[in-house]
Amino acid sequence: ERGHGPYQPHEPGYGLYQPGYSPYDDQIPDPKSLMLAIQNAKAYLLKSSTTSGLNLYDHLANMLTKILDEQPTNAVDIIENISKDVKWAQFQKKMDTLRDEHEILPTFEAAEKRKALFLKANGEEDEELEEEIGETPLPNVMETAFYFEQAGIGLSKDESYHIFLALKKLVSVQPIQTCRFWGKILGLEMNYIIAEVQYHEGEEEEETEEEEVIKEGEKGVDEVEDEDEEKKKEDEPPKSTYKPPPVIPKEENGTGANKYVYFVCNEPGKPWVKLPPVTPAQIVCARKIKKFFTGRLDAPVVSFPPFPGNEANYLRAQIARISAGTHISPIGFYQFAEEEGDEEEEGEGGRDTYEENPDFQPLSVAEMVDSLSTWVHHAQSILKQGRCVWLNPFQKSEEEEEEEEEEEGEEEKPEEPDELQQEIGPPLLTPLSEDEGIQNIPAWTAQPSTNLIPQYAVAVLQSNRWPGAYAFASGRKFENIYFGWGHKYSPENHAPALPPPVQAEYPSGPEITETRDPTLEEELAFKAAKEEALAAAEEEEDEEDVEDEEEEEDD
Amino acid sequence: MEAVSLAAALELTAGGGAGLSAEKRAVLGASLLLLQRDYRFERVWFWGRIQGVRGAYYIAEGLGSDRAAPRSRLYSLNCVEWSLLPPATKEMVAQAEQLKGRFQGDPSFEYEYTEIDAEDAERLFEDGKEPVIKEEARLIATIEQIDKAVGIIPRGAFVKTPLGSVHENRNFEGLSLTEAKKLSSYFQFTEPVNLKNKTLLEKADLDPSTDFLDSLEHDIPQGSWTIQLEKGGTVVVLRSLLWLGLTFYHIPMTKQYGYVYFGTGEKNLDLPFML
């Protein structure tokens, strides 16, 4: 009825418009009691909480200060969060120092290591300058990274530069003739940065001596065991006729799958670790398993068939397979060295050395991209045996033949295994057009780096069999690199090898084969036949006895 | 990853060796912005690149005001012209799961099912259509699967308002270093599946505004994520082992995070053997 006009003091609602009064006041208290009410309210707000020690008055003051300082938009929407933040800030101060010190350490340590890369070693500066101006085995990582970046491949510039410096450190420490950044393999906990290296001739490591010492020690132990076995021959359970397949020796350092030596580190700045040479057994096993790398070189590889080695060996085997499958160069860049009278060697394994062609004429980028026959493999492919050059494991040297003759007198002659077929792989410098694809996918995908500016494009190849392997060529420059998890591509799901069939415990022959028990009729028939035979035999004996008696009487 | 921070984000995810050339980066900077204008997106994400045998697909996603709503997806073969992809349907996903092998790089390529039984064919193709599927449909299904399975965000980056829509959390200042190393600090940015199965005790600790998604620690199979600190410990990088090529990065104590996919678009079904 009446409009909401100015309220009179006696009407309810008057307090809405008067500061300090709540709308529920029906009457306005006296000014003195007003001040008392204010003081009561403030005292209430100042009361400290029993649980947290804060009081609402200070908290509201802090909150409003923060809001007025920062002036966020739509403050009313996030007021609760601001309140929570202010409270949280109170507590954080006490625990701050402890927690921060704990957290800072790992990042700062890593930064120290990376900074160390950038420091020049003292006292070597002058000498190094002279050497560096001449030929250096250090590869120009940044230049390679630039070309790969044209295709969108590669690490960030920071990381590339760190790797550059780490390689420089490696080159200065080890007697290296050629060095190359091979690539990066990702792992579960840490990654691997890999460098491919060739030593100066004659600077090989001394590992081979250690291995020979171990072998001789084992031989001595075997002889002792043989003597013991002879004594116990009669009591022993039947010996197993299982002959393990012969161990195929690994290739010499500097040839075949071990042509290059590989160094790995987890991050640039960490020390480089040399990977051991790869054995054919490891390559054969690596082909059957598919495991992620953890990032620790001493981690065991738990798999079936059991991998002969730890993660360092598995890594080396995968590197060998990737190198053999994906290291390519433009045709004509490498050529076979002209040698005399090598026909015999060629028959066995083909050529395995190449040299740079001084008369190399680079093809245009369009030609490199259009046809895969303009690229060739310059890494030897690995045969099924696990080596690059086939070796017949049953070919015995003279020493081994003598030993066998001695043993033959005591044991049965072991069965001769079937002769192995010589395995032949594609010869070196085969063009890529010979590469088999997988199902209907070609082995390589070739693209120019850019379609907009063909004059300065770079030819880029991606491998489809080893996803992560890339190669580029531009004029006289080319390079291979690998960024990935280290596994081959297979469109089918990985099927682990089945365990071998259970070995027969004993040879089964007629004397231990079970036969059916004879039925009742058969038993009776047998008994009757036996009695007849017995009766016939007794008659004969009687006759013989009579004859004997007669003979004796005569004598 | 956000289109505006493309260059910086690419530097951080380049640890896996995959990235974009300078040419692509330059053209994306312009064309993603134009996408935002044309389709009225609030945010444009560069989702990644699926490498086919003969070509590659570049994918972008656009988000509206509710960040959890189904996103619009676009693809391009050259980063200049973009085509909108229709939303994924369940049949598409079911059909695409039967396919194996690489993408071809041609969106109109038709796959034929050589190994499929007659029963399966009837089940998947109800209308009695020819059992072929176009590569475009496979692309849609793959992107949907990847986003659903491994599209992740850090905890606290998004908040759910009482009205149900999801927004970026303006108070999010980044995860701390210790939090960033734990799998439980990352959520899958999709409809939660495991959330309802949690016990009441666990649910009591959750904050309904920020913990409305599944966290990664219950991801199946366990161990399908690798967490690493790169660049001397300044960036946390998560890589998925189920979809090889998915990389997520986050700089602790800052608001920078994002994920991108550079790969062949194939699920890694051998994962249990490889761990």
TrEMBL record, chain A:
GO CC annotation, single: radial spoke
Signal sequence annotation: none
Example GO biological process: axoneme assembly
Protein name: RSH4A protein
Subcellular location: Cytoplasm, Cytoskeleton, Cilium axoneme
Ranges of biased composition (kind: Acidic residues): 202-213, 338-347, 398-421, 537-555
Segments of this protein annotated with the region Disordered: 201-252, 338-358, 396-434, 497-555
Alphabetized UniProt keyword annotations: Cell projection, Cilium, Cytoplasm, Cytoskeleton
Principal subcellular localization: cytoplasm
Comp. bias (Basic and acidic residues): 513-533
CDD domains: DD_CrRSP4-like
Pfam families per the UniProt record, alphabetical: Radial_spoke (PF04712)
TrEMBL record, chain B:
Cellular component terms per the entry's GO annotation: axoneme; kinocilium
Keywords of this entry: Cell projection, Cilium, Cilium biogenesis/degradation, Cytoplasm, Cytoskeleton, Flagellum
This protein's record includes keyword Cytoplasm: yes
Family matches, as InterPro entries: RSP9 (IPR055316)
GO biological process: axoneme assembly; cilium movement involved in cell motility; motile cilium assembly
Keyword Manganese: no
Major location (coarse): other
UniProt subcellular location: Cell projection, Kinocilium; Cytoplasm, Cytoskeleton, Flagellum axoneme
Family designation: Belongs to the flagellar radial spoke RSP9 family.
Protein name: Radial spoke head protein 9 homolog
Species of the source: Nyctibius bracteatus (Rufous potoo)
